[in-house]
Amino acid sequence: MKKLNQKNNSASKGFTLIELVVVIGILAVLFAIVLIAINPGRQFAQANDTKRRSDVNAILNSVSQYAADHKGSLSALSIGSSEVLISNSGADICDELVPMYISALPFDPNKTTSNCGTGVSSPTYDSGYKIVQDSNGRVTVSASPEVSGATISVTR
User: Fold this and answer.
1) Nearest to 109 by CA among 145, 148, 83, 70
2) Is-contact 115 129, C-beta < 8 A?
3) Segment 61-99, tens digit of pLDDT
4) Alpha-carbon distance 66 to 13, whole Å?
5) Is residue 102 part of a domain?
6) Any bridge partners for residue 154, and if so which?
7) Does some domain include residue 18?
8) Residue 10 burial (C-beta neighbours within 10 Å; 0-12, 13-18, 19+)
9) pTM attached to this predicted model
10) Residue 68: which domain range?
């Protein structure tokens, strides 16, 4: 009798293959649901847009500080009345602003690099941001977003 009871007890320990497959299947479904809910691609795009908002403000702050030091004149910055890219071939503001008003000119997160503010003489750079000065003297810095449809811009 004792041997029979011991045999039944030892046979009931552990999980069957079907039970393990069912548990793994349930975990896979839960993981997929969580991954869809988190959506890392969208999270990275939103983080990039947040960086763009910060960069646009930083560039505009440095332009405002430059204007304050030069009695409101922005003529040396070559900012035109039509929107142009902040780059060495567009609105070349690097030499005037870096490092006095901003430590390094920010660049779009999707750009791989920018040489402005890195100590390179005669840098070729493309920040990915645009700047314009309207007829009233107000300056607008803008960026193209990844997530929302509206342009990221700040005007002062």
Assistant:
1) 145
2) no
3) 999 999 999 998 888 887 888 999 998 888 889 889 988
4) 77
5) yes
6) 141
7) no
8) exposed
9) 0.76
10) 40-155
